[in-house]
Automatic annotation (TrEMBL):
InterPro entries: 2-oxogl_dehyd_N, 2oxoglutarate_DH_E1, DH_E1, KGD_C_sf, ODO-1/KGD_C, THDP-binding, Transketolase-like_Pyr-bd. E1 component of the 2-oxoglutarate dehydrogenase (OGDH) complex which catalyzes the decarboxylation of 2-oxoglutarate, the first step in the conversion of 2-oxoglutarate to succinyl-CoA and CO(2). Its EC number is 1.2.4.2. Residues 594-791 form the Transketolase-like pyrimidine-binding domain. Signal peptide: none annotated. The keyword Oxidoreductase applies. It is an enzyme of class 1 (oxidoreductase). Its cofactor is thiamine diphosphate. Keywords: Oxidoreductase, Thiamine pyrophosphate. This is oxoglutarate dehydrogenase (succinyl-transferring).
Amino acid sequence: MMKELELNSHLFGGNAPFVEDLYEQYLADPAAIDPKWRDYFDKLQQTDGGNERDIARGPIEESFVRLARQPRLGAVRDVAAEREASRKQVAVLRLIDAHRLLGSRAADLDPLKRMDVAPVPELDPGHYQLSSADMAVQFNCGNLAGPESAPLSDILSRLRQTYCSHIGIESMHITSTRERMWVQAYFEERLSTPQFGVEQKKRMLKQVTAAETMEQYLHRKYVGQKRFSLEGGESFIAAMDHLVQGAGREGVQEMVIGMAHRGRLNVLVNTLGKLPRDLFSEFEGRPTTDLPSGDVKYHNGFSADIPTPAGPIHLSLAFNPSHLEIVNPVVVGSVRARQQRRGDKHGEQVLPVLVHGDSAFIGLGTNQGTFNLSQTRGYGTGGTVHIVINNQVGFTTSDPRDNRSTLYCTDIAKMVEAPVIHVNGDNPEAVCFAVEAALAYRKEFQKDVVIDLVCFRKHGHNEADDPYVTQPMMYRKIAAHPGVRKKYADRLIAEGVVSVEEADGFIQAYREALDRGEHVEQTTLTDYKRNFAIDFSKYMGNHWRTPVATAVPQADLVRLTEKFTSVPEGFKLRNTVEKIVNERREMVAGNVGVDFGMAEHLAYATLLTEGYAVRISGEDSGRGTFNHRHAVLHDQNREKWNEGVYTPLQHLSDNQAHFLVIDSILNEEAVLAFEYGYASSAPEELTIWEAQFGDFANGAQVVIDQFITSGETKWGRLCGLTMMLPHGYDGQGPEHSSARVERYLQLCAEHNIQVVQPTEAAQIFHVLRRQMLRPVRKPLVIIMSKRLLKAKIAASPIEQFTSGEFRNVIGDAAQLDAKKVKRVIVCAGQVYYDLDNARKEREVKDIAVVRIEQLYPFPTEELQAEIAKYPNARELVWVQEEPRNQGAWHQIRHRLEGVMNPKQVLKYAGRQSSASPAVGYMSKHTAQLKAFLDEAMTL
């Protein structure tokens, strides 16, 4: 084949694109092509000299020249002329690839045209020694979409129209040849030029008119109030409408939207159909909902059913705090839950849409984590459509020199090889064209795609901010800009699409509707009943003490244990794992105590067969950080990394609920936010996030503060997320000891969350089952002792699983004469066992030890009843292993005082206050432990 090409090749013929396509295949997978060609390309690369080139095809281009020198059979030619013709053909191919790679840098993207566009020499034919004399010459177009050959002037015109007009495309960073060529073909075939009909153009004009008119109306009616205006980016509302309608046509039935402040009020009214009168009530301090705290209007979410040509689509705008991009993993988590509920494995029915600010998109690390989740097994959603409202000024006063180190704010998306479509916000049609391309790409590849909507911000960061202070040049340009609506209306008037009177009529109709507090058109469906909708009413208004039976008959436990301790025939377990699995059969039979790992399995297995799905994620969740869980088993004889993995809890019965345990990426913030979003949309599923060590949750504190502990009181959002936080002072140093119990207790109020610290295996069984069986959906924080996970002293007899319930307080089981007890020690967590051992070693008979297993909501009645058992005790001593300024002491002291009798005094025993959560020296740890145990045991 290669010899035939050498004999017959001429770069004006059909072989140039053939060789180029062959080289594309070689770059993607050398083994996929003929060995002779592979050897040829290998040699070309070795002789390239290793010099850095702007185009990756350097070696093949040079080979084109050499191939062109071969004489054609039966022809006598001018070698010099042929060589020059070949050089120019290669130059044209390089010019084409240069536009694909660099064309966006010369695109007309900035509505303000305030910065000089740096010349890009590679986009100039002269850079390749192509002159005006070559413009009429026919050249082969390679794999450029369109005719096989064309005059250079036509090729250049098509390239500039495609890559350098109001749309700029970045796709050359995509390593998949199929994906990259799909993007190229999509835009090249259409020349990046939308072809919308008259009615579509009118609809776009109505959308940008609505966006602008609403902002101006609010500006006059509510002078000085913050609303984070969209003015300057009104095309975004046309884009959202086009996205909703286009997604509906493609069969999408739900869309979950996450966005921060800029333009949010406009989206609420003009996209989701919130009544203007309801928005006005919020401006006037008359909220439409009655919540304990509520939130500002530009944080609130909303849901609506919107008609599309293919049927209704349900839109949900997620509630969002001021931490901007933190809502993004919450949204994709919610989408994943909705897809799971529908059985939507490829994301065809539920679509996530994330709207970003330019500085926030690249500046806040949560986006790196969210992108990193996008293609992983436990978190993928079939791709997210990202829209960046790029107002070119960042958050308040910054400019690109200060807020990023990359050329574009969208460069972070290249980490997942997402195509980026830059578009001029002054051109609503181009913006909507970009939306169509994004939807088509996502449908084809189930991957993320980014639209960079380059616009401006008419006002400051908010309406009370004076932007001229820091951006005088930019805002002089903005002051002279007529506005997106005016420019687009003038264009359509010139095209004859609308008249002046019709365009002005859109404004007047919208203003009159706002005066009535209504919409111009009915955009929402008020009586549509959705499939897969969740009924949260059954979880509303129920007290945390609502009784529920969590015990399970032993026969059921034995049957389920047989299922989850069985492996496929020939499946070889690691010896240590096989020992754990075998011991679990002994546990359920009552021959040995049940440990925490087995207790978890029993809880999950029973819930799964009762119809409750279970999802567990964390950095080592399959095995368990402390080698205790082993919910995922690995065949020791497997030969491929993606084979020989077995999850027994997925094979309990044919009609069991879904079970997933997944080892997450190493990013606590994004993963915990994802799981919060998931749990909020899946109340019938036990959703667990497990920290590798409890203090690792520090990296996700914003999720805990602004969503988990306050989402219900601010937004009325119920969430049953469970957090497992390993905790315990075992001499492992500052970072591997404390889960920062005090932080969670400080956030407790209004029965917002539950905080438990179980000391026995049966407790974890009952609390996990209680979390699902009780008609209450509150976040559950489990402060989990690392030491007790496999400790025999913390194992529970099987009888505690077949009867009983979660005990909020555990009284002293020692044989004490209650009347002789002089001191009652109250504690939480594994320190109980240290205290019990110290008491036994010292043969103390007049000190009782009571455990609080639930720190919040505080079990006042149970604790009071236990203390009342010791009428002669004059001291109540709180003992904790955390330093005095940490742990539960300062958060529950007032509660302890509330259960004491008037003659008792309250004391503290524990480590002294410390700036560090724990010491890093074992000798010092041991000395501290001995000291406070002595203090606790000395009357």
